[in-house]
Amino acid sequence: MDMPEVMRSRRAMLSLSQAELAHHAGVDKRQIRRYEAGEAQPSLPVARLIAEALDVTLDELAGNHGSRVGLSGQWWASWQTQTNDTPAYPTQPVTLTQRDDLVQIHADRRGLALPGAGYTWRGELRLWDNQVLMGWYVADEAGVRSMGTLFMRLHTHGQHMIGRWVGQSHDGPMLTGYGVIARDEQAAADQLGQLVEEGMTP
């Protein structure tokens, strides 16, 4: 995409009007209209303000995404864990928001419906060479102390990532297990099932 397309698509994604974007960037609404029509190019200081308002980098605003795989969107996460000393394999929807090589991840709901089990969480991953994501996670609920690290290997075409989590459980002990994040729920569950079936001990 070129800059006008980036501006239009990001503004629509953020539900911003041209007037609201103009206000954030400190320019007249007519200028935003001209930028989006490709009739003019913003100066560097104005482009920086537009990029900030649209939550993109200057490179992304200019349409330069390089060859970085795009990971933003709705995904499904499936984890090998345990509850009350019983193996559990929860699957939950997660939202990924990517900015350059940094990916924010947020669980949209609990993975386990059992009383007192599971929790929502958030984290941050850094993408390395379009191949590996490494980062952290932490419980997003008061009173839950779970936190740890994530290492995920990304599928060549960005369809799923498989890896491992290591962290402190809600009641203190250190635990580890396999994890899968995929574009749809069934793929996430199937990939995790395959890892477990192959006898890979957590």
From TrEMBL:
Question: SMART domains, alphabetically?
Answer: HTH_XRE (SM00530)
User: Pfam families attached here?
Assistant: HTH_3 (PF01381)
List the signal peptide residues.
none
One example GO MF annotation = DNA binding
* Residues of the HTH cro/C1-type domain: 7-61
Output the PROSITE patterns linked to this UniProt entry.
Answer: HTH_CROC1
Descriptive protein name: Transcriptional regulator with XRE-family HTH domain
Task: Please tell me the species this chain comes from.
Answer: Flexivirga oryzae
